[in-house]
Fold:
Amino acid sequence: MTPEQVLKIPPRVLAQSQRESYFENGYLLVERIVAPQLVRAMLEVTAQWVERSRAVEKSDAIFDLEPGHGPDNPRLRRLSSPVEHDERYWKFASESLIPDIVADLVGPDVKFHHSKLNFKWAEGGEEVKWHQDIQYWPHTNYSPLTVGTYLHDVGSDQGPLGVIPGSHKGELFDEYNDKGQWVGCLSERDLRKVPLDTAQYLMGPAGSITIHNCRTIHGSRPNLSGLGRPLLLNVYSAADAFTYTANPLPSRFEGTIVRGRRARYAHHDPRPCQVPPDWSGGYTSLFALQQEEAWDETQIAAVAAQTRDIREADMPAAS
Structure:
């Protein structure tokens, strides 16, 4: 569906002005929309996974670790595909108010793509460099969006999500470096074309959500505060958007229709999209790629095995 078609459908949750703002600016912040008891439930399950990470020594397909991580000082960058590892994350992604909000922005038929939980650990949580998402996982159209749920209050010193208003209407940038290696972020040369002085940093209390379109340029600064900034991210699209490359963060739930019905026709946006490397054999992490970290053969083999197991699992009916 086009934005004009979506806006003609009565909204379920959002105000019409919020929908118009999203289509104009490429992002939205909705404060305190997730019920406090649900935020507490997500914090509880997240704490359990942090505890499990204490026994992990190297990043793998589940845990992406910051330098300095250890059993006495867990420091996570990301829990990859949380919906794959704990049913409580999937219940949140599929049964909460979030898919209804997404329906207000992509149309009544909503498809789940993937999830991740970025921690932005206290006192040094790494930056996320300016980038666009869709080059990581191209679709036939540009309806995909990411919904981030703040599990803690987030202020300016905790590395909140930053977005460039209106950038979703502009250029899709090359996310390979000059050597032809995928780095998943904009080069310094291309950043000179971006009005970084217009960046908006999306702060808010726990239970707030951020939404950004797949073309929107976004990133975040390091977290130098004494407070963490766990951000639970779920990615959805209109049902008429279809992927044509492997999902870097696969799960059994990829392609599940969480609202409405399956599409009978694909919607193709004529604007081209850059194609990433082949993720079908596994994916390291956004952080490792942007920081150009090298993973050893054992890590790569483990990720490949875990990815293969997920891809070969029976997928639920996408209806």
Residues 36-53 form the longest helix (18 residues). Residues 36 and 99 are 18 Å apart (CA to CA).
